[in-house]
Amino acid sequence: MKPAAFDYVTPRTVAEAVAALADTDRKAQVLAGGQSLLIEMHYRRARPDLVVDINRVADLDALRVGDGALRVGALVRHRVFESPRAAPGPLGRLLSLAAHHIAHPPIRTLGTMVGSLAWAHPASEWCTVAVALGADIEVRGGDGDRSLGAHDYFRGPHLTTREPGQLITGVRLPLLEQNTGVGFLEHRRTHASFAQIAVVATLTVHDGVITGARIGLANAADRPVRAVAAETSLIGAEFDQVESEGQRADAGPFHRAAGLAAERDASPRAQPYADVDYQRHVVAVLVRRTLHQAAADLRADAGRGDSGDAG
């Protein structure tokens, strides 16, 4: 099929883009990478009256580090994060792990992190990273600039707190401490499928004790979620007591956290190829494995001395 008829504008500034979106009587969509929007338009599941193409807007492709955060502009492509040096230290390594799970190289060349946040798919890698890290999503509308916390930005599949007429200009991801290990894993039915379940995890250790943990779950509910119960169970655990992958998987802090993530933090929905019990099982397995990955990353980083570069 072909898209339904629509008007098309190419603003050169953020102000022009916001002005184009200001007519709330029209159904408008923003085009950056278009890797999700154009498919929906071709199948006529999306029928915007107006497409606002922001690819010519200056400065939206900037990637900057400052004030303890990495600011990602609305036109920064997925492929930028394939290199762990796109951001300093552990954050760069985490973004690189996540980026390599996103679709295929041609899509990563065109698609954007901010576009993923705008589309708000429950299986999105970037949405889950944003929730896990407590990112701030920056929007501009007719009433000026606002910052939306990722923890309450997502309301359901493709539903967010962003209002009509608001343009997402960027997202701020907090930098991670150097003594932090990171992990990202996902399970798919096929190589070309969306993640059936994906997990992002960070572990921060001081003096041999886990002092911080962040765990995000993709497609384990109708939106990306933090596994708060699982995170809390890890605080205060002795890092040296963490069992090694390949040894007993039914004991230790990672096993306990995995069970809590599956039973308390996840709210999976039945799918054609996976009932709820199976999905909870996948959550538990992936959380445990991702925590092991983060622990291995932390141990490796002790001898790596990698501070990373940004830009």
UniProtKB/TrEMBL annotation:
It comes from the Bacteria. The keyword Flavoprotein applies. Keywords: FAD, Flavoprotein, Oxidoreductase. Its EC number is 1.2.7.4. InterPro entries: CO_DH_flav_C, CO_DH_flav_C_dom_sf, Diverse_Substr_Oxidored, FAD-bd_PCMH, FAD-bd_PCMH-like_sf, FAD-bd_PCMH_sub1, FAD-bd_PCMH_sub2, Mopterin_DH_FAD-bd. GO terms for molecular function: anaerobic carbon-monoxide dehydrogenase activity; FAD binding. It is an enzyme of class 1 (oxidoreductase). Pfam families: CO_deh_flav_C (PF03450), FAD_binding_5 (PF00941). Residues 1-178 form the FAD-binding PCMH-type domain. PANTHER family: XANTHINE DEHYDROGENASE SUBUNIT C-RELATED. This is Carbon-monoxide dehydrogenase medium subunit.
